[in-house]
Amino acid sequence: MYGKAFAPEYRGSLEDLSVNASLEEVLAKAVEQQQRAELAGSALDAAHAGLAVAEASRRLGRVAEADRAWKASYRAAREAGDQGAMAWAVWSGGTLARQRGELALARRWLGIAADLAERGGDVVARGYSLAGLAETGRIQGDYEAVGALHEQLLAEARRRGEARHTVWALEGIAQMHRNSGSYDTALAMFEEAAEIAGKADDARGHAWALRGIADVLSLKGGTGRALELLSEAEGTCRRMKLVSALAYNHKMRGNVLFRAGRYAEAEECYRGALAEFEEMAEPRGAALARLGLVKSRARLGHDRAATAAELDDLHRTLGRIGLLHAREMVEAARAELGLAPAGARPAA
Prior knowledge:
single chain; 16 helices
């Protein structure tokens, strides 16, 4: 049995904030509390408030503000001598690094966060840090290395009845099944995640689950239902100001339209998503949106040599980020468009 979803990153005097609170509301309250704590000389309260500032800023796509805030939270937590609060701050920094495409740095910070949390006896911070490491590996496409960790964290979350973390783990494992071609298994897990998130009032987790369901349904030919689910999820993203999730929603809409052969509409969606990702400095999302854009334009008659050059550039970009699965997607795009593999063309 799962309880109502809560946001453990909202700590101290902010712990009553709902997991579904608007990020602008969270940011305003956190900044106010941070100023109060600093005036009162309470380092721990300042650390808690700084963490909320960091997370709200990160999810709003304000990466410079998020970077300053998590570091300030860590300094305050260190001054207070609280290893749990230090762990949460470093977790936020590691999550931000992953969002910015700095995957090696993300692994470093998240490993440090997990160690701090274990020494500080903060079970939830440890779980979130390990989950961050697992997600980083999954994003890179290293499923063999992180599959068991995902399953371990899912079992731990189920045992504790922690809905939000259960939903996260289900969605991560489902994504690996989807990328491996096990669509029925992926769909069942995304649907379970959506059900748990809905009952636990976890709007963010529910929106991500709907995106996953839409993706798999689209792969099975269910274009209309997929677009309906994405519209439902988009409403949640807009209401909560989930900037990154909204951009990924728009990118997925492009995927659904592309699979349905609606290339002009897909191009428009990818172009919009690319602008959103670039505005928040999220290179992974930007690269994936660019890939969809290149494929759509190719289907609409774009020059083949120019298309090949753009795919070459994307291959290099994804390699620098370390996205192994995404690089495979570029090679699949070459084959789909009838272009030679990377390195197979003669030099100009």
